[in-house]
Amino acid sequence: MNLESWKFDTNAQNEALINEIKGALFEYLVAKGIAGLSGPNCLCEISPDLRNRLLHYESWLRDHDLELIMFLPGVVQQVALAIKTSIPGKVTGVEVVGKLAGGSGQKELHESDLVIHAEKEGRTEDFFVGLKFCKTNSFVNTKSGGSQTFLARYFDKFAQAAQLQKEFNLEMEHAYLILGQNLYEETGLSAQGYDFEGKFGEEWTNLGAGDLPGQLSPKLNNWVMQYYQSVIQSLYRKMSFLYQSSSQAFAEALYPIMGFGARNLIQVIVFIDYKKDENKKQYSLNSFKIHSNRDLVEELTDMQMGTLQTEISSFEILLKSWRLQIRVKPMNKFTVPGLKVNCSVKFPKLS
Question: Which residue of 117, 326, 338, 339 lies most exposed, with the fewest beta carbons within 10 A?
Fold first, then answer.
């Protein structure tokens, strides 16, 4: 695995991938920490392929972010101890499943990064743990799904969900057609005899205008932003309709969206303060929070749809003290149809 050969199109993509590396390594170190605190017979289980990948990740971070490597052990020790203390019974094993849960077909894993096996009064029980490692006061990503199945998948308890999904898909298709027509008109391709009929052709590639929003001129990027705004407005209307139909069923649908697909899941969120002074990076632990299903139940007792703002590509659902943000983003390049719905939670501001 040659990590030095990785190339990133934008700074945002670069940061996202590096954050994924940090997150994967953090999951493994916490699992090892829990196992180490639980006695010599407690094993930390991880697939050989994933273990090998994480060793490369650690080596790469040691060369590129030594301050983080030096900072992690202290945080890992605190988090591992807090998780172990929250588990009833004797911990007998810890599995690292974060990179396996999505594609394994094991639906019971849901958003789990770790599975902790414990024994109590002769019974064995599994506890699922979701880990988040993020900057203080940032939105915490909890779910990302394809826009063409989002309503039908997460709001399937509503009889109207399938029809609303069909309507939403048609509205997205129409908005994408308008986007392409506007871009072809703005760049002069229409004047050259090219018609946009739902697909960016070779003529767009040959133009060299780019296929990522960050590569476009401000005027062209504005059309892309209007496309996102049109889609989020459509999604807002559909979700508002479902909320008005049954706020209770709507609240139930938010569990997996907010990272609680498994009702016995423990969600651990570590907030890190980060500073960069010249070439030196500084990391410090702000705090970490451990949430259970009970915390989400309490938050959902006071829920309402936020006000839709017309100039951004997201909206919020306001809970008792948390805020759930729903945002539409490109899968990768805007020249390929299809968006993803990114869901993230903002917690009360930390000092």
Answer: 338
Question: Which strand ranges, in their side-by-side order, compose the sheet holding 123-135?
Answer: 43-45, 90-96, 114-120, 123-135, 265-277, 280-291
pLDDT, tens digit, for every residue of 112-156?
Answer: 899 999 998 889 899 999 999 889 999 999 999 999 999 999 999
β-pair type (323-330, 123-135): unpaired
The four Cα atoms 143, 144, 146, 149 give a dihedral, to 10 degrees, of 10
Which two structure tokens, joined as six digits, stand for 192? 């050259």
Alpha-carbon distances of 219 from 182, 188, 196, 309, rounded to whole Å: 11, 13, 18, 21
> Which residues on neighbouring strands pair with residue 271, listed in sequence order?
134, 287
The whole-angstrom distance between residue 80's C-alpha and the CA centroid of its chain comes to 22
State the Cα–Cα distance between residues 319 and 243, nearest whole angstrom.
13
Positive/negative CA dihedral, 74, 76, 81, 83:
positive
Tokens 């650690």 locate to: 58
Tens-place pLDDT, residues 177-190: 999 999 999 999 99
**Backbone region of residue 278 per phi and psi (left: phi > 0; alpha: psi in -120 to 50; beta: other values):** left
The two three-digit tokens of residue 284, written as one number: 């410090």
159 burial level (CB within 10 Å; 0-12, 13-18, 19+): exposed
Phi, psi at residue 216, to the nearest 5°?
A: -85, 160
Q: For the chain, list the strands marked E by DSSP.
A: 43-45, 90-96, 114-120, 123-135, 140-146, 265-277, 280-291, 304-305, 314-318, 323-330, 339-346
Report the C-alpha gap between 287 and 267 in whole angstroms.
Answer: 14
For residue 287, what are its two tokens? 């705090």
* DSSP at 347: P
Amino acid code (one letter) for 299 = E
